[in-house]
Amino acid sequence: MHTNTYETDIVAELQLHRHQPLSEDRQGEALDLEIAPPAIFNGKYYYIESYGCQMNFSDSEIVAAILQAEGYGITRNCEEADLVLLNTCAIREKAEDRIRARLRNLNNLKKQRPDMLIGLLGCMAERLKKNLLEQERIVDIVVGPDAYRDLPKLALEASGGQKAVNVLLSREETYADISPIRLDANGVTAFISIMRGCDNMCSFCVVPFTRGRERSRNAFSIVAEAQDLVARGYKEVTLLGQNVDSYKWQNPETEQTVTFAQLLEMIALLSPDLRVRFSTSHPKDITDDVLYTMAKYDNVCNYIHLPVQAGSSEVLKRMNRTYDRAWYLEKIAAIRRILPNCAISTDVIAGFCGETEAEHAETLSIMEAVKYEMAYMFAYSERPGTLAARRYPDDVPPEVKNRRLQEIIALQNEHSLLRNQADLGKVFRILAEKPSKRSDEDLCGRTDQNKMVIFPRGNHQPGDYVNVLIESCTLASMKGRVV
Ligand code: SAH
Ligand code: SF4
Ligand code: F3S
What we know:
Blueprint: H1 9-17, E1 45-50, H2 54-69, E2 73-74, E3 83-88, H3 93-112, E4 117-121, H4 122-128, H5 131-134, E5 141-143, H6 151-159, E6 164-166, E7 189-193, E8 195-196, H7 207-211, E9 215-216, H8 219-231, E10 236-240, E11 248-250, E12 257-259, H9 260-268, E13 275-279, H10 288-296, E14 303-305, H11 313-318, H12 325-338, E15 343-350, H13 357-370, E16 374-379, H14 387-391, H15 398-421, E17 427-435, E18 442-446, E19 452-456, E20 465-473, E21 478-482
Parallel strand pairs: 1-2, 1-3, 3-4, 4-5, 5-6, 7-10, 10-13, 14-15, 15-16, 19-21
Antiparallel strand pairs: 8-9, 11-12, 17-18, 17-20, 18-19, 20-21
Bound molecules: S-adenosyl-L-homocysteine (SAH), iron/sulfur cluster and FE3-S4 cluster (F3S).
Iron/sulfur cluster binds at residues 198, 200, 202, 205, 207-208, 242-243, 282.
């Protein structure tokens, strides 16, 4: 379920229960769905599995729309597919290891069905380019994140025995005109991609190399997509980008620019019944404007994912995060001041290059200072080509990384429990999303603060807003009853 050597089941548990946009909580899932068949069926079926962050899950919905327009039908059984696609992640070594294992598995299947084409999409495709096709010969098609429009053509070429690769990155592509096919349709919540790429150069991170330059999508196309979702009965949208606070789109006709705060407002105004979330915020770019917009609209959820990565200013400098500990804590103070009920979650990396015991202690102390509702916690994994790989040795021994990560996890577990316990006896407005995993008699849905709550279904349906009194909790979830 998870992608790091040192991560434990506890983290995986947490990630499963707390549905957080730019996370990895549904790795490789082939989703249950009912999707209308293509207008003119070309006789071929595709199957798609997604790995990595929500951007990838969102991209898979664009890929589905592109293939559907070419007449492909979707199947949830890879054994009957003509085209098997893996939309891949390269963020840590473990993420790529999992995909390699899956590819070996698919190549066994291909021995029985030589006509089947295996396509690698996404960040690992972009990072390894032709390697898996030419040297290892374990895929037939390789397509990077900006080249999905080319996929039908490449599939045709590959079926004629040609090498089919397109890993060109683009400065313009945002797929703004493509209406995604909702693969993970619960009919209630959906993701909308508002930008692509990343212009930050965090030294540990492969994303700028796999996703290219940052570009913002046409604001009107975003509003139109949200509007369409509202018309179809959806109740929540999550606006996605690696760094949403640097969203900026200029209207070519009026030359007016739309900032993230303005975009947020445009979406919030569509319907008071539509919840609006977003991810990810960057501590260097999040503005008070965004916080005031969140405060102004009840339907913009009180939840911010603000990755800290490390608590020591020295480590942050080596990470090239461009903020220090004091700056980060000031942002937290601004959030608490403007949005007193806002939940805050984070990402933490343990054992980055050169991290000393004292620097690690600063990560624990910043966690103590903020007491995050939730965190994604990782051991540093060196990625070839990144600034850190070129500049700093990966010198924290694995067992030390692991111990530090365990300390971080243990502390976060305390805080998650504490934060959940603080909600006991309170009533929250929950948007019911789906039946709970354990029982069809129960529904689950999230609070405004993004905490998952399980409650007896009664007469309620997914999509209903219900008031739930919290009666019990663990560190990963809360239970209650409708009042
Ligand atoms: N754009 C987001 C993060 C995207 S990647 C942001 O800037 O916050 C998600 C998380 O993966 C990062 O926040 C970081 O904590 C983790 N991560 C990225 N590269 C990593 C690496 N090389 N090793 C370990 N964790 C990494
Ligand atoms: Fe990676 Fe940093 Fe960009 Fe996030 S902001 S995607 S961590 S480079
Ligand atoms: Fe996302 Fe993984 Fe790419 S986290 S942006 S799919 S490297």
